[in-house]
Write a structure and sequence with these properties.
Keywords: Cell outer membrane, Membrane, Signal. One of its GO terms (cellular component) is cell outer membrane. This protein is mainly alpha-helical. Helix content is 42%, strand content 5%. It has one domain: Serine Threonine Protein Phosphatase 5, Tetratricopeptide repeat (Alpha Horseshoe), CATH 1.25.40. It has 19 helices and six strands.
Amino acid sequence: MKRKLFLIAGLAGLLTLSSCTKFLEEKSQSDVIPKTATDFRELLIGSGYMTNNEPMKYLYLMDDDVDFFLEYANDPSYVVGSYDAKQNFLWYSWQPKLADMDGMGVLIAEDPSVTTYAQYYAKIMGCNAVLENIDKAIGTQSEKDRVKAEALAVRAMYYFRLANLYGEPYNYNAKSLCVPLKLTSGIVSSPMSQATVEEVYAQVVGDLQKAAALMDPLPIMRKDFHINQPAIHILLSRVFLYMENWKESVAEANKVFEQGGKITDMTTLDTKSGSWLNYNNAEVEWVFGGNTQANQNTYAPAARFLATYDTEDARYRIGFSLSSTGVNLVSKLPFVVDLGQAMRSSEALLNRAEANVQLGELGAALKDLNDLRRKRIQGYTDENIADKATLLQAVRDERRKEFAYECFRWFDLRRYGMPEISHRYQHDLGENVVHYKLTKADPMYVLPFPTSVILKNSGLKQNPSGQMPDRIGQ
C-alpha cells in the first residue's frame, strides 16, 4: 500500500494542473493518465488523501495535556533546555509569531507552500480535480459514485480542520471570517476572499451528506486506507457536535453502529505498549494521515493529565511507555513512517453520549459512557451519574483520555468555551520557572495566518492573534 501511495503521488500534479478537456484528450493519454474510475480512486490516494506528514502535528503543543517542565523526570534536562523544547517554544507559549518562525528565530514559512494552511489547500485542489473529472471516467456508476464520495468526504475534513485552525469556534461566532472556499482545481491569480465560519461549515456538512448519499448504498469496504461509510458518519457526527446540532449528531453516530461499527475490549490486550491506531483494531474504520506529534520521543504528557487515568485503564498501559529517564512517553502513536491517525467507532459512542447529555437523555448517555469504560478499564463497575453537569464533564473527560495526542483536545477546548490554561517553562536548568497564560477566549484560540500566505493572497485578513504583542511569561 505504501509503495502504491508513493508511485501515484507523483501523478497528483499532472491531474491538478490539467484542464478537464486536455486531460481527457486522446493525444494526451498515456499509461500514467487516469482513465477509469479505478485509476481515479488510486490517484485520489496521492492527490487528495493525506500522506504520512500531518500539517498540524504541532497543535498539541498548545493544549493542556503537555508540559515542558517535568518535575517527575529523573533527568529534567531531558526536556528543560533541550533544543526541541526551545525550537517549539513559540507554540508552547502561544506567541503571535508561531506561524512564521520557530523558537530559535529561524524563519519556517518563507515559502507559503510549506505552511499548514497551504498543505491542506493542496490536498483540497487534488480532491477538486478528481471531482471535476470523475463523471467522464470509464466505469460503472457505482464505481464513480464511490470515488466522488471519497473526494467529497476528505475535502470536507480538510475544510473542517482549516475552520477550526483559522476561524472562531462555530458555537462562539459563526458569522466571523474564516478561510476561502476553493471548490475548483484551477489556479486563481486574483485575491480570494474569506468565507464565514458558518459558510465553511455549511460546505462541510453538504459535502459529507452528499458523500454519504453516494456511498451508503454501496458495499462497505474496510482496511483499504480509503474513507468508508462508517467513517463518513463519524465525521458528520463530529461536525454536528461542534455545531451543537445534538439530534443530528446522535443520528449520525447511530448509523456507524448500524453499519457494523464495533468497540474493542482493550482490557483483554496483553501488550504493555504500542499503537492501536491501525486496522488490527476492530473499531478502526479508516487509517490516514501522519503522526499527530512533532516529536513523541521528546515531549511528555503533563503529570496532572496522566493522573486522570485509572490505574487499571488499558489506555494508560498501552498508550504510554516509561523511558529510562523516568519520562512517560506517548507510545500509542505509530512511528513517523507509518500512517498515524485513525477514525474509529469509539468516537461515535462518545459523540452520541455528549449529544444525549445535552438533549437531556441522561440514561442513554450514561449507558454509552459505562459501555466504553467497561471496554477500557479492567474490573470496571458501572457508575450511576444523575446530575447533567457531572455527566457532561465525565463524558468530556473520557473523550480527553480516549483521543489524547490525536489532535482532538485543542479543537475541543475551543468549543468548550476557550477556557484559560497555562504552561510552565524553564529555558535552562537553574533559571526561573515562568508561567505563560492563555486567557479565556484568548485571540490565540484562532491561529494567525502565516505572513507568506497573506502576501500570496491579499484577500486574507490577518487574525487578531497575529497582531498581538509578544506574550510575556510571569
